[in-house]
Design a protein that fits this description.
mainly alpha, Rna Polymerase Sigma Factor, Chain: A, Arc Repressor Mutant, subunit A, 2 domains, 8 helices, elongated
Amino acid sequence: MSDGRRNYWNRIFDQHGPGLTAFIRRRVRRAADTSDLTQELYLRLLRADRTELIRNPEAYLYTVAVNLLREQAVLDRRWGHTIDAVDPTTEPALVDFCTPEEQVDLQARLSQAAELIEALPAKFQAVFILQYRDGLSYEEIAARLGVSTHAVKKYVMQGLSLCRDRLRRSEGGAR
């Protein structure tokens, strides 16, 4: 590889790198994938031949990024990198590591947590489910529910506060 090609892509990458990294981050499921994909993008650019034919380097950069993101999405669907610990199909595998007494305690805690969440107002329930079960960020939840990010934060804080209060009352009444 020529130094001229490396210098060309370094200059383009220095100019557009921060925006490109943000572009990739907004489109991946796991933030940890952002740096890997950005590095892979850079390596693909270095392997590009005949850079003199590229009329719009920024457009080329983002086109390669989109193609890389598509490849990553296919791999994610094919291999399914995440395990949902709340998923009923994975729960038996997780519970096998518990003693019978721990299983009973775990089931009681899960039941109590479900009751606490079900007692919350609907908007709090929705935010809890989207955040804790689905793993969405405040911004993603806000977009999905059509509210502000500030409202999502408020719902989380108020919901947690209500759950703590109800838990304290139930523990206080049981003693």
